[in-house]
Amino acid sequence: MRGGLTRRMIVASGLLAVLIGATFAILLSSVGQLRDSTARARQSDEVLVVANRLERIVVDLETGERGFLITAEEAFLEPWRSAQAAFPEQARALERLVADNAGQRARAQDITMAVTSYIQDYSVPLVDAARRDPGSARDVTVIADGKLRVDAIRTQFDRFVATEQNFAVTRQQSSEAAARRAIAVAAGGLGGSVLLIVVFAGYLTRAIVRPVRRTAAMAGRLAGGDLSARTPDHGAGEIGVLERSFNTMARALQEGREALTASRARIVAAGDQARRMIERDLHDGAQQRLVSLALDLRVAEATLPRELPEVTAQLARVADGLAGALDDLREVSHGIHPAILSEGGLGPALKALARRSAVPVELDVDIEPRLSEPFEVAAYYVVSEALTNAAKHARASVAHVEARAREGGLHISVRDDGIGGADPRQGSGLIGLIDRVEAMGGMISLSSPTGKGTALLVDLPVKGA
Ligand SMILES: Nc1ncnc2c1ncn2[C@@H]1O[C@H](COP(=O)(O)OP(=O)(O)O)[C@@H](O)[C@H]1O
Ligand SMILES: [Mg+2]
Q: If you ran DSSP here, which 8-state letter would residue 121 be given?
């Protein structure tokens, strides 16, 4: 046997949990990557902003200084001074931002050094000299030298910014790729999980729900009396055990019922056989002897001398008694097994029953061919017992008897308009009928509500004899 249900459930749930867990782990790591590359892309933006600010500071330095040299107005030195003051902090900020990239860090340091040198070695001395001697600084070569220096610095800036922009593009691309990956993983994970759950549900349905429902339906059929019901018994684990146990139980029930039916049929047949033999013994033995005794008596009566009138009267009384005893005996042997049934068939036998009944009978018989003997006997006893009950217990004014041979069956019903309340547990006649009818695979039903008469319905599965 393969694993039990519990183990299968644990394995299947575990598998599902592991697969869904793995999907979510991949999804989480993709989201993490996405966050990292987004953060790096944002860092590049910041670097570019700070570089731009630093370049403006250089421009402010240069224009302020040139304005002062040309006009000698102190007002031009205002932006020059604040640019000098702002420079070290911004330069440090830029170096900090690119600290994790060796190339950019070196470029930022170069820029810092170049600007520092421009301020200390060129701009400040030049402005000082111009203050001392306003004419000296208007020297064209000096100003051109400053422009060269500033151009060189701006070239450095251009290179720095271009490199950073390249980084930004790469980072943006990798961030978009990470986003696409995360979406793909999420969609795949979702689809995969749904698929797994569907597969799992399908497995549960196939391995457990469907077999259990099948077995429940089979149990319902068994309870309803259909003992031939069976279920496929190849289910997994305990389900298979359940199915096989159900089949074994159903088989045992069916065999038991078949054995019981057969034994009832044997008992009924043995009873009928015994009754037939008693009837024949009575008919051929006691009845014949009484008949010949009666004949002897008639002969004796005829040969008796007339002078003995007392003896004649006594003999006549004995002859009457003998005739009565013969009638009684005929009546008894008829009750044991009606000869008319064997001779004339069910129709005439039922007519005879109706004639003899103490309760008036309305008879409706529609049986053309002869039926096989056990069915005729059964039908006869059903009507006989029901009419006897109607006379004995029902206080009925009329009884309706119906007997019809229908397609594949014999249908008999006996109804009276008596007091009702018939109960097979209270006597032996009805229970005998139930045994007889069920032994033949027939159906018998009794309806006898108090005060509303009694109806006995019987169906026998019978073909013509
Ligand atoms: N047609 C009927 N009307 C009223 N009561 C009935 C009728 N048939 C049977 N009974 C009641 O049901 C009991 C059981 O009937 P039955 O099995 O035929 O036993 P029995 O006739 O030997 O008493 C009877 O004792 C009687 O009380
Ligand atoms: Mg009875």
A: I
